[in-house]
Amino acid sequence: MTTLEEAAIPTGRTVARGRNRLGRREGRTALFFLLPGLIGMVLFLLVPIIASVVLSFTNWKLLGKPAFVGWANYTRLFTADPQFWPVLRNTLFFTAEYLVLNIVISLGLAVWISSLRRGQRWFRVVFFLPTFTPGIAVAIVWMLIFAPDGLFDSILRSLPIAMPNMLADQTLAMQAVIIVSLWAGVGYNTVLFNAALDMVPANYLEAARIDGATAWDRFWKIRLPLISPTLFFGTVMTAITSLQVFDQIYVMTRGGPGNATSTLGYAIYQRGFQNFQMGYASAIAWVMFAMIMALTALQFWLQRKWVHYDN
Amino acid sequence: MTTKSRSNRALVLDIVNHGLLLLVALLFLFPFFWMVSNAVRSNVEVLAIPVRFLPETFEWDNFTKAWTQLPFGRFFFNSAFIAICVTAITVVVSCLSGYAFARLKFPGRDALLMAYLGTLMVPAIMLIIPLFLIVNSLGMVNTFQGVILPVAFGTFGAFLMRQFFLSIPMELEEAARIDGASRLRVLVSIIVPLSMPAIGLLSLFTFIGQWNNFLWPLIVLTGADNATLPVGLTLFQTQQGTQWNYIMAGAALSMLPGIVLAILLQKLIYNSIALNAGMGGR
Predict the structure, then answer these.
(1) What is the band of A63 on the pLDDT scale with cuts at 50, 70, 90?
(2) Which residues pair with A58 in a beta bridge?
(3) Going from the N-terminus, what domains does chain A have, and what CATH number goes with each?
(4) Which of B123, B134, B233 is opposite residue A240, by nearest beta carbon?
(5) 3-class SS at A68?
(6) What is the distance between the alpha carbons of residues A176 and A180, in angstroms, rounded to a whole number?
(7) CB-closest option in B47, B129, B234 to A251
(8) What pLDDT shows up at residue B2?
(9) What is the mean pLDDT of chain A?
(10) Alpha-carbon distance A200 to B278, whole Å?
(11) Per-residue confidence at A7, pLDDT binned at 50, 70, 90?
(12) What CATH class has B62-279?
């Protein structure tokens, strides 16, 4: 034992040198562990990001040689392309309506589920199911529902409501897309908000009840402020995904009728992979990125007014 | 009002409350019912007026026909193969990177971790064009590796595994290190077995994400033979004389794994989302 200890106590100098050698060896081990992920990240994330910036300043059309065109793609977007402003408007319209309805419906369902004595988890599963299924399959099923003379039309006909076919109408087509997106998307936020409500300490609510607070007051003055950080998180994430909407539109309307449902995501696909304007499509992608950043920044700025943190 | 009648009233309200939400839930489930109901009727009946809720004759063999003739069976295996490969690569790469971030000291570690987190801000749809050009220049258009590789190196997994590894007590691996076990050995035989909850979660969400993915396979897999289920569904959607009944059968097939996993793993899913709820905005 003593010999071991003596052998294990080196002089100060050898310790430093030993630690250095150990540090270098650990650095090499770290490189070995990181390498697969690093190669993947550089090749499939870093290079594409840089390539996307460069591409947006060229006129590359997949075939032929690309030429550097400066800001031409961006100026064309904002000043010359007759389709760009409608696309931008459609995207913002979809995001605004979908975001508000998604948060209101999922919060409503979450509160409703949390009021149950039995079967909470089964209701959570029911509303969550579409979240785990392919968006394309969901959109195809709803397309059959909205098809001309399909289920939706025949239900409306049996009621005294005169309405054109949703998918064929300039203004109603976007509403159909929003209905489908809501069905597919409220489940995640419902479970998220329900989980947050479960974490509100029961004794807070009990104390308020004893003090005579109504259920309405308990919701607005205790539960809502306490779950507001989660509500904020859900709102930001939902906004980011809804600005990228693509699947439902590809299946149900292909951006139509006219370009009534064409969004930024659909425009990137159309310009990039149907017209092969890789440079122009990259410029649209960066406009989308700018919008995502702007909307996220706006929400972070607004959160000071309504989100309560307990520390 | 006596306490008894008050508690009776509360009981009635409670039952009404459950009943109403049950009604909402059944309405919510209707599209699933409509899909299956149309999958098992003849195509003439799908398009018939007036619309019927249940088929006149049930054609259950539409599922076998869709599986063999369209061929949704082939698409199913393509989807499964791609999703499983992406999941396997993601788990291995994330465990290796996560371990380096959690346990090893190297220069620039924190900066690199921040860079990994920063890439999470970039929306997937933005990288579609340069990624396609990379796959194209590697000659991997319309191949499985062309679909799999570009999406298998997401940085989220490395961060998730790092967070989980940090919660494992250091003492457990120090003993093995003193016995001379290498870092890789420690990771494989001590850390990974203890990290099954996190690995399960990463696998589940990666698998479902890829199974449901549409835009990327749509662009890379240009041939009908290699199509995944979502891409295959849209291939038949645009053909003349759409066979709606077979398409509904195919849609049902594509939804099956997600529905089964969501029901079987509801606790794991709830706990992971609850973790997000607890951290929300903090």
Answers:
(1) confident
(2) A68
(3) 11-55 (no CATH), 74-306 (1.10.3720.10)
(4) B123
(5) strand
(6) 6
(7) B234
(8) 59
(9) 88
(10) 10
(11) very low
(12) mainly alpha
Is the pLDDT at B273 greater than 80? The verdict is: yes
Cβ-defined contact of A37 to B93 (cutoff 8 Å):
yes
Q: Does residue B184 sit in helix, strand or coil?
A: helix
The count of CB pairs under 8 A between chains A and B is: 278
Cα angle vertex A198, ends A194, A204, to 5°? 130
Chain B residues whose beta carbon lies within 8 Å of the beta carbon of residue A278: 129, 133
Query: Mutate which of A91, A131, A136 to test chain B, going by most B C-beta atoms within 10 A?
Result: A136
Determine, for residues A112 and B255 on separate chains, whether the beta-carbon distance falls below 8 Å.
Answer: no
ipTM score: 0.90
Alpha-carbon distances of B266 from A125, B200, B261, rounded to whole Å: 7, 13, 8
- Is A93's Cβ below 8 Å from some Cβ in B? no
B264 Cβ partners below 8 Å, 6+ apart?
Answer: none
- What's residue B281's pLDDT? 40
Contact in structure between B194 and B168 (CB atoms under 8 Å): yes
Residues of chain A contacting B233 with CB distance shorter than 8 Å: 134, 136-137, 140
Closest Cα in chain B to A230: B280
CA distance A134 to A33: 34
How far does A177 lie from chain B, in Å, by closest CA? 15
A257's enclosing H/E stretch is: none
Q: What single-letter DSSP state applies at residue B270?
A: H
Distance of CA A137 to the CA centre of its chain: 19
- A192 touches B: beta carbon within 8 Å: yes
Q: What is the pLDDT of residue B240?
A: 59
